[in-house]
């Protein structure tokens, strides 16, 4: 089977994995843990990077393994601990990474991911601008999804 571009075989996520695309995506996102985007175009670019990461995590277990292996969860935790622009996007990526992946859940707990998650659950750690009703509701819903996934996946052991 030939791909649409250049005769490369495989699905899009297989091509991304083969080209070490997870590492490239994480390296592209990493600078924004220390600084916020400077303009709306840069904000859109960063959000698009997070969308691609979430799309990869939806595909196959190999994508989650690559993400966890490249320390993607630890990077997302750095975003969660700082009051930065990308915090909501990082929380979504964490939610996608933990879903149906006990290994990722164990790694998340080992990386001390419960501290920021429970701080958000208790309403702490949100900046004043994040406390708008619609933002708080969506953020709380995502935090509850992460907690539910952790309880489901880690409850077996």
What is the string of SSEs from the N terminus onward? Answer: HHHHHHHHH
SS elements, strand count: 0
Broad structural category: mainly alpha
Number of helices: 9
Sheet-strand content, in percent, reads under 5%
Radius of gyration: 16 Å
Please render the helix and strand layout as text:
Blueprint: H1 12-18, H2 21-29, H3 40-59, H4 61-69, H5 72-81, H6 87-98, H7 102-110, H8 114-121, H9 133-154
Helix pairs in contact: 2-3, 3-4, 3-6, 5-6, 6-9, 8-9
Characterization of the model:
The protein is mostly helical. The protein is about 70% helix and about 0% strand. It is built from nine helices and no strands. It has helices spanning about 10-20, 20-30, 40-60, 60-70, 70-80, 85-100, 100-110, 115-120, 135-155. Helix 5 (about 70-80) runs antiparallel to helix 6.
């Amino acid at each position: 089977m030939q791909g649409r571009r250049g005769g490369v075989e495989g699905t899009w996520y297989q091509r991304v994995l083969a080209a070490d695309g997870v590492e490239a995506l994480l390296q592209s996102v990493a600078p924004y843990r220390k600084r916020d985007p400077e303009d709306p175009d840069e904000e859109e670019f960063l959000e698009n990077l997070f969308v691609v990461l979430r799309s990869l995590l939806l595909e196959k277990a190999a994508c989650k393994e690559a993400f966890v292996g490249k320390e993607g969860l630890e990077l997302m935790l750095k975003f969660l601990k700082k009051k930065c622009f990308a915090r909501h996007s990082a929380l979504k990526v964490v939610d996608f990474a933990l879903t149906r992946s006990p290994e990722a859940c164990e790694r998340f707990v080992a990386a001390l991911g419960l501290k920021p998650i429970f701080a958000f659950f208790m309403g702490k750690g949100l900046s004043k601008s994040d406390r708008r009703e619609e933002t708080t509701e969506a953020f709380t819903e995502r935090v509850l999804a992460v907690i539910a996934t952790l309880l489901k996946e880690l409850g077996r052991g």
